[in-house]
Amino acid sequence: MDSFEFNKIAGGVLATLMMTMLLGIFSGMVFGPHIPAKPGYELPSAPAQETATNAPEAPAEPLPVLLAKADPAKGQALAKACGACHNFEKGAGPKVGPPLYGVVGRKVASMDGFSYSDALKAKGGTWTMDEINKFITNPKADVAGTKMGFAGEQSPEKRADIIDYLHTLSDNPVPMPKP
User: Fold this and answer.
1) Cα separation of 70 and 49, whole Å?
2) How far apart are CA 47 and CA 52, in angstroms?
3) Rounded CA gap, 127 and 104, in Å?
4) Predicted structure pTM score
5) Are 119 and 141 in contact (CB under 8 A)?
6) Burial class (CB in 10 A: 0-12, 13-18, 19+), 19
7) Is the Transmembrane helix keyword given for this protein (predicted)?
8) How far apart are CA 97 and CA 108, in angstroms?
9) Which domains does the chain have, with CATH numbers?
């Protein structure tokens, strides 16, 4: 092969590489990615609480009154979301969270075989209906440092339904408070 043929082949290869590189630069300018000012995704958050400055806030119904109107069937349906982390069956072991069978009336952080957070161990006491109500309203506010990732249930009626359902999960249910 003479040098003229070699130069033609080398020139063709170099021209192809040069066109490929230029095509990549051109397509990068045309179809360039949008780089956000703040990296990551915006996660949904709780809606902002709008309070009326002139209107007085309606007094909240006490838990015994809400429990008198509560429906354990609705509570069972609402507690399906809790089933991702908790078991509800008698004798079932822990999942991500401890089993909830017999939780009403049980000592806080007392289930064998589950590693509770130090904050929940320090809380002490018993899971009364009032304590469960406070905890599921906002777990991180009630027990700062808890491992529980649940954001909380803001509706008092839904909390009462869930507590009424949890109340039924026991061999010896604790008596319901009188309204």
Assistant:
1) 25
2) 15
3) 5
4) 0.67
5) no
6) exposed
7) yes
8) 13
9) 63-168 (1.10.760.10)
